[in-house]
Write a structure and sequence with these properties.
Glycosyl transferase family 36, globular, Beta-galactosidase, Chain A, domain 5, GH65_N, 25% helix, Gal_mutarotase_sf_dom, alpha+beta, transferase, GH94_catalytic, 28% strand
Length: 1291
Amino acid sequence: MPSASSRTINARQHGLLSNGSYSVMLGSSGSGYSQWHDLAITRWREDPTGNGWGSYLLLRDEDSGAVWSASLQPYGDRTPDDTVMFNAGRASFGRRHHSLHSVLDVAVASDADIELRRLTLSNHGDRTRTVTLTSYAELVLGPIGADNAHPAFSKMFVQTEWDAAHGMLLATRRRRASGEAQVWAAHALQVVGQPADVVPEYETDRARFLGRGNALRQAQAMQPGAVLSNTTGCVLDPVFSLRRRITLGPNSSVTLLLWTQLADSREGALALSAQLDSPDAAERLFAGAADRAEAEQQRLGIDAAQLACFAHWMSALLNSDPTQRAAAEVLVRGRGGPPTLWSAGISGDRPIVLFLLGDSTALPRVQELLLAQNFWRGQRLAVDVVLLNTADGADGDALHSVLVALASTQKAQLKSDDQLPKAELFALRDNAINDDLRNGLLTVARVVLDDAEAAPVVAEPANTIVTPAVIRASTPASAAAASITDQLEFANGIGGFTEAGRAYEITLDDEHGTPAPWVNVIANPAFGFLVSAEGGGYTWSLNSQQNPLTPWPNDPVSDSPHEVLYLRDEDTGVLWSATALPIRVAGAAYKTTHGKGWTRFDNEANGIALELLQCVPTTDSIKLSRLRLCNRSTRARRLSITSYVEWALGANGTTPAPYVITTRDETTGALFARNPWRPDFGDRVAFVDLAGAQHSMSGDRRDFLGPLGSVTQPAALRDNTPLSGRLGAALDPCGALQTHIELPPNTQIDIVFMLGDAANEAAAQALIEKYRAANIDHVLADIATQWNDVLDTVQVRTPDRAMDILLNDWLQYQVLGCRLWARTAYYQASGAYGFRDQLQDVMALCVSRPDLAREHLLRAAGRQFVEGDVQHWWLPPGGQGIRTRISDDRNWLVYVAMHYVGATGDVAVLDEVLPFLAGQPIPEGATDAFFQPSVSDQRVSVYEHCARALDASLTRGAHGLPLIGTGDWNDGMNAVGELGRGESSWLGWFLLSAIAAFAPVAERRGDTERAQRWRNYADDLRAALERAWDGQWYRRGYYDDGTPLGSHESDECRIDTIAQSWSVMADASDQQHAAQAMASVDQLLVDHANQIARLFTPPFDHSQQNPGYIKGYPPGVRENGGQYTHGATWSIFAWAKLGDGDRAAGLFDMLNPINHSDSADAVARYKVEPYVVSADVYSVAPHVGRGGWTWYTGSAAWLYRAGLEAVLGFQLQGDKLRIDPCIPKDWPGFQLTYQHRGEQHVSRYEITVENPGKVCRGVTRVELDGQALAIDDAIALVDDGKTHQLRITLG
């Protein structure tokens, strides 16, 4: 294929290089992927507009600091001399940067799993040039589907190292299961004819390479003079990057070789060294690759014209191309997603080519298509082909007979080599399928071929909008607010608490930024968004994982925003954003304040003072963004305001963009977006609106950003041209709206941007009209009332202000807003209800929102199967979920029900009647089953649901302990009992607690035989648990083969904290053992120097035993020996129960995120938000003290209860209250207010606890309104609407 200049380069052109096991795909911009067998080596996402994913060679002039790349991407700067050529077995990219010319050749070895990139750099100038060349590739080394769905999780398991002996980087993926493929990669950079650098320069930490808040185009590692850090190990976000420095004299050239080898062992990857030592290895590789590619084409009989045709089709299979799909009016008909195709046996998992043929004249083209399918499959590109016979009558019968014969032969070929990826062929008759299947095929097909003359693709006419007059501000500017930064509590140089702890203020400037995204999760029960201090985040409706309106970010390094508000000065052309990302104005100070149900951004840039306030109303599915602009200058300002969203409208990890349809609603003038091609939510309508003030709009992301464009510099905002109005199907979709305003001196204006979602068009129109007329301040007042009602129910004032802020203002907000309503955060987007997860969460709401706790208790009870087990998690609203052999889930129903009844006095909840689920059992040999269960005809009381959960849990292993199944509370220990014999001591303690709470209820209801059976089991279990005593602590359990887990004899995981804390919580028979077990926790698991409470120690890494996927985590990260905060909170309860208030409160302080972020140094180490609890804190170098996943963690609810109930002793018992604190001896006391909501009134109890004797525990006097009460009795609460004084004295 001849070379093409930049004027003629087809931007959609792609090439595929492969030896049958290793493949490299490259587009004309140089972006693409590397793949080994079925594993992705590098990260790539389908993005026909930005197209910024791939492996790149970056150059930097060491004199000028200028940077460019050996291919068009990643910098996206076209030059007139750009050339791209795809030949047999080779891709070539030619470029010129001033007098430096480069040619990049790429090939895959024919006889080894090696990829080679050869760069020839020539200096055509008259001066010597010093240049550094840097490679960059983001590593996956695993299944691309898992990486797409949850990249931050996938990245954790990749481990890197520098092999100095061979001068190469190595990387491997830590395996989560023994059946996973082992994969190793090696990466080396040579300068031909030159020895390796004495001091190598390399990087494998993406965060260090890019720098926080940067994309690759702004990478800090490419800034003038920046050097690579030589970081390797468990870096959490891995890349391969090598750098060499070269000096080029006038009229000289140099060749660099970038090698990558894949293998199933470290030794296999190191075999790359043989290539490095061979002077002609590169030439042999390129020659061999060309020979193999030509031989394969000859074997299949592919000529040059066919090769070009196949490449054209392939481009649309990789990146959606509207010119090769069905017409826009046809695409809108498809409904229901892949399940629509299943009736024809088509999975929808692979790209589809659809051929419509009406007579036999098209058969040669059919044969060409089948040839292309075989050709692509040989290069590891799996494509399904559907032949749809549209002929009728005898002609149709005859044609179908031919197609069936062709299909039979092709199917045999497709099955002939099981080492290649699966691909399928389907021959269907048009008159034998229904409209849904036909429309589905036309919608989903990436390439639609027919036997008619191809019609030219005509662009849809742009929508015409009657342009209103420019909006002129007339409101006088409000007075500038005085800065109160110096009044922040626990200020750390970046942020601090304000509004008496109820909000957190963050300041960003050129020198200071958050080391990780510091976000707010803002939600009502059905809708919400999260937003970072810099402006990143996303929005969802109904289900935060299955129905995101905009893409979930999950990239804490770049945090690139997908929702942006732009401002442009129409006189000067200066463009900036309302938030620090994507366009940060140099020298500007940005202030972000996260409050309860709202976030506010303030900055002053380019002479405009700006306030952006974002919130979600308490009930409706809409995000409101009020942009307030103030011109305090003496000249009028003409500005355009442009809102932009990138639509998602499909489950996280999928590619919904090709199926999103945008329209302008004629009734409201808003921009609507739909994705009917999905099984759920396909009828819903998403929308954006500028409160009706939009002057122009666009639904075309490529049109708005520009080819290879980004949100940092949208092409549509380079001048004052209105947005194009381009809307419809088959676009790379977005929602962009623009309005124009004039701000006279000393005036201000409010612009409201709305992003929402509704069940249908009429509901969307109603929402839009409602909030166009709404007063945002009234919406904010409703939000404040909602959250104040929750948070003000109990307020505390202790000697520990950090504890007060967490208990009074943030933990319940985290529990309710994030865990129960949003079910998502930056690091994990669940969308699901976890059976045990939200049940534990609502225990923290039994005082402030008992209605929500009750509601969820009933919701969870309804997810139980007749057999007693439950769904481990399920997706609302449909209820599809996973049935597992995890052993503890069902018993949380019992435990939480008893807590709820005890706290609220609502015994009637046990008589609520709910059906069971019905569904397939887990297949023999499998560990779980995902399916949509049905509702059983059998309906029983909540009591019976609980009882059946206990009945199903009375298992015994060889040591008398309950069987762990495929995990107890610690899901990561899924292999301890995978053969059905492993045991769990923690589960034993937990069962004792559940039985102790529930058996009396059974006895009161006359279910005595059952209760006695549970009690007998508990008696035997207590004895077995004491036999699990290991000398200084309790063992965690036993593997299938009887090997102890959590024993002093264990190489790894010698002691596990939760088996010790629950021995106290469950009233172990031997109290001395329980006390000693907690002493061992303090001695061996609590790292006082680093303020970390480890889950267990040492971490799993190299031991013979395989506990499960927990061993795949890097040592010290998450559950694998790090602080897993959820489990650590239980030790607070244990210490309090033992009467040790110093240790109980001390551990609360240790777990309190405020205390991990109270200085600039602490922030640099901890990194994540100071105001919400992190699920985990890492415990092993180099990440000691680093916070992990925040917000979406069950530790928030337990830490709240630990502080309020265990330490401060607040125990609500229906219409009674008991105060039994266990506090540090040096506390003089504390105060607490409780708003008791009776049936008629809200009565206020002001509680004072005094500690004159400097004790931890022991109530000696109780006075209510001046009257002494018996110290052993709970205090009766009255419903009189008055304020009461309760005084407790310890001694």
